[in-house]
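In this section we walk through a basic example: taking a raw amino acid sequence and producing a predicted 3D structure, encoded as discrete structure tokens. The instruction is simple. Fold the sequence below.
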Amino acid sequence: MTNMPAGPSTPTGNPGAIITVPNIITVVRFLGTPLFVWLVLGTREYGWGVFVLAMMGCTDWIDGYVARKLNQTSQLGRIMDPLADRVALVAVTITLVLAGILPLWLLLLLLIPDVVLLAATLYFFRGDAGLKVTLLGKARTAALMVGTPMLLLAKALDSDFTAILAWVFLGAAMVMHVIAFGRYFRSLLAKRRERDVSPPSPRTGRP
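The resulting token sequence is shown next.
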């Protein structure tokens, strides 16, 4: 059998691609964040805010599915996808704190681990450390994306039961967030040690 060159239908994807269907979906998720902020803080349309959050949560799953289905994985997409999640979660949390729906301590618990990881990544690797998103990290994001709109829905409906259910999801999300932070940080340190102890490549040619 003859070896065919890697093309759009091969499993290798196109790491250097910029304009792809999943990347466009991720950009739409980015655009949903300012729309949500305006709906909650500008117009107090909590119901529409819940709808926008639900759509953003759907795109988080859809872009990954489309990337695999159409074989359109790319380096840009690998960076943009988790970045869109973090930007959305932080912006949504800040918005709900400003609206008086979430307490400040939850925002700090969400932000501090991310800031520590970002600082460690920049210090040790001057950028992307290449850490893969874990299943626990995905579960944490999913719980946050369920809990936050549910809490907003509780405000819109004035429902104590919905508020309690929302806090069950948010509490679980915060526990997973702290555990995921510990695992990511250990992986970061292990990768740094592995890089530092790896033998240098042999020199070839004249100095």
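Looking at the output, two observations stand out. The two ends are 45 Å apart (CA to CA). The helical segments are 21-42, 46-69, 75-98, 104-125, 135-157, 160-197. In the next section we compare this with other chains.
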